[in-house]
Amino acid sequence: MNQPTPAIVAQHAVRRLPRLALILLCAAYVLPGFWGRAPWKANDIESFGYMLQLAKPAVGEWVSWLKPTLLGQADDSLALLPYWLGAAAIRWSPAGWEHIFARIPFIGMLALTLASTWYAVYALARHPAAQPVAFAFGGEAKPKDYACALADGGLLALMACLGLARLSHETTPALSQLCLASLLFFGLATLPRHRIQSGMAIAIGMLGLTLSGAPSLALWLGMGGSLIRAVAQTDPEQRRLTMLDLGLLALICLLCITTAGALDLWRWRVVPHHLVDVHILAKLLMWFTWPAWPLALWSLWRWRGQLAQGWRYPHLGLPIWFSLVVITSTWLTGLSDQALLVSLPAVATLAAFALPTLRRSLSAWIDWFTLLFFSVCALIVWVVWIAMQTGVPAQSALNVARLVPGFVPEFSVITFSLALAATLAWAGLVKWRIGHHRTALWKSMVLPASGAALCWLLVMSLWLPMLDFARSYAPMVKKVTAVTGPVDCLQYAGISRAQGAALQFHGQLKLLPAQKPQEHCRWLVVDRAHLPLLSTKLQQLGWTEAGKARRVQSKEESLLIFKPSVALP
C-alpha cells in the first residue's frame, strides 16, 4: 500500500505492437462501413440530406450555410461543422457519387479519433505518477516504452468497444462530436509538454464541438480539463501552466460562448421530464462500452491510492472528468447512445491503465471469453451468408427471406476474398495468442480489438448487400417511382426529413409542399402515419390515393402516393 503506483512492469513487457499490424488493424476497422452502401435510415440519410441541400440547391433556391434546412425544417441537433465538411466534399463529387464523397471527411474524423486517443494515452502515461515502480536493481520499464505500450492498449480498447462500430461509420454530427472531443482530450493530455500543438488542439476541439451542436459540452470539458491540468503535479520536463496559458484558455471559452450565442447553437440543456431511467442508462453503458468498462472499473480500484486526489493526477483526473461529464449529460438531457459515444476515448484510457495491474488469471479469462465470443459471431455471419448463397442451412435461408423480403443475393469474388482473408488472419492471430510468448501489456486487448474489427468487416462485406437493401430507402423510392412513372417533381405532406432526403437523392426529385394538383407536379406522397390528420384536407385539395410504397423491414413506415381526383387540363 506504500507503493506510489500499483504498476509493476519490467522492460521486457513493454515492447511495441508492430506498427504495420496496428495500421492494418485500424484500416480494417475504419474503412468498412463507409464504402459500398447507400445512406441508411434515419440519421445517416437525414444528415446527408442537409449536406446535399447546401452543396447542390435546386435551381432558384437560396440556402443559408448558417441555418441549413431540409424540407423547410432546421436541424434538431443544431450542428453546422459536419454539414459544412460534407457539403464541401460533395461539391467536388461527380454525379451519382455524392454520398461517397460526403463520407470522406468522416473517414478522416474516425482516423483522427483513433490517433488522438493513442497520443493522449501516451502523454498521460508519461506523467511521473503513472509510471511503474522502480526496481531495486533496475530493469523496470523505461518511461517512453511504457507509455507507448499503454497507448497501444488504449487504442485497442477503444476499437474493441461495441458501441463505436455503427455510430462511428455514419455521416452524422455524433461522429464529429466524438472526433473533436478526442482532439480536445489529446490537447489537454499533452499540456504543458507541447504548448503550441496542444493549444491548437484545444481551440479546434472546443470551437469544433460548439459548431457541432455541443457548446455546453465543450465548455464543461474544456474548463474542467484545464483546471485539472492547472493543479496537476508536473515532472521536471514540464512547466506549470502560466497566467498567460490560463488566459488563452479563458479566451477560447469566451469565443465558444460568443459563437454559440451568435449562431443560436445552445442545445445541451437539462430537461427534467426527459431524464433517462438509471436502469436503462446502466444497461446502455454496459453493452455500449464493453469490454472497456470492466477494465476501467478495475483501473479505478487498483489506482485508488491516487484516486482521492485525482485532480492532481491527470492520467486519472482527465479521463474520469470526461467520462462523468458525458454520462451526466446523457442522463440529464434525455439523449441516447449518440451522446454517449463521446465518452469512449476516456473510458478506453482508463481501461489502458488497468493493463499494468491485471493478474494473469484475469488476462487469460479475457482472452478466452473474447476468443469464444467473436469466433461464434464470425461463424454466424459466415453461416448466414452461405445460407443466402446456397439455401443451406434451410432455416437460416428462410429467416433471411422472412426478414428481408424481396432481397436477391449476389456472389462477389472480391467480397468473398476479403472476408476469407480477414477470417484467416483472425485464425492466425488466435494461434499466435494462445502460444507461448513473452508478456506484453497490450496482449490482453489484441483479441477484443481484432475480434471487433473482424466481425465489423465481415458484416460490412458479406452482409452488406442485405443490410443495404433493408436499411436503405432506395427500394421504397423505387416503389414510388414505379407508381408515378418518370417524373421530376413531387408534392409532399407529413413525410420525415429522412424520407424527403431519400426522395431527393435516390429519385432525383424536386419536392414541393402539398397544394392543389398541378400540371408540372401532379403526384403527392404522404407518410401513412400522418394520413388520419391529413385525409380531409387532401380530399379538399383534390387528391385521391393511387398506390403505396412500404419500406423493407418496417410494417409501419410506408408512403402513400396520391394522384389528382380529376383529370388535369
The unreliable regions are none
State the helicity in percent bands: 55-70%
What gross morphology would you assign?
globular
What structural category arises from helix and sheet content?
mainly alpha
Distance between the termini: 91 Å
**Total beta-strand segments:** 7
Given the structure, what is the number of helices? 25
Largest sheet: 5 strands, mixed
Average pLDDT for all residues: 88
- Identify the strand order in the major beta sheet: 4-3-5-7-6
- SS strand fraction: 5-15%
Q: Report the radius of gyration as a whole number of Å.
A: 26 Å
Tally of separate domains: 4
Keywords: Membrane, Transmembrane, Transmembrane helix
Transmembrane segments: 20-38, 100-125, 174-191, 246-268, 280-301, 313-333, 339-358, 365-387, 407-429, 441-464
Protein name: Glycosyltransferase
Features:
single chain, 7 strands, 569 residues, globular, transmembrane helix, membrane, two-stranded antiparallel ribbon, Glycosyltransferase, transmembrane, 4 domains, 59% helix, 5-stranded mixed β-sheet
Question: Please, could you describe this protein's structure?
Answer:
The chain starts with 18 loop residues before the first helix and ends in a 5-residue tail after the last strand. With 569 residues, the chain is mainly alpha-helical. It has helices spanning 19-30, 43-55, 81-90, 98-102, 104-125, 143-160, 164-167, 173-190, 195-211, 215-231, 243-263, 278-288, 292-302, 304-307, 314-332, 337-340, 344-352, 360-390, 394-403, 413-433, 443-459, 464-471, 474-484, 497-506, 531-541; strands at residues 69-70, 73-74, 489-493, 510-513, 524-527, 543-550, 558-564. The chain has four domains: 31-37 and 108-357, no CATH class; 43-102, no CATH class; 362-448 and 462-471; 475-564, D-Maltodextrin-Binding Protein, domain 2. The chain crosses the membrane at residues 20-38, 100-125, 174-191, 246-268, 280-301, 313-333, 339-358, 365-387, 407-429, 441-464. This is Glycosyltransferase. Keywords: Membrane, Transmembrane, Transmembrane helix.
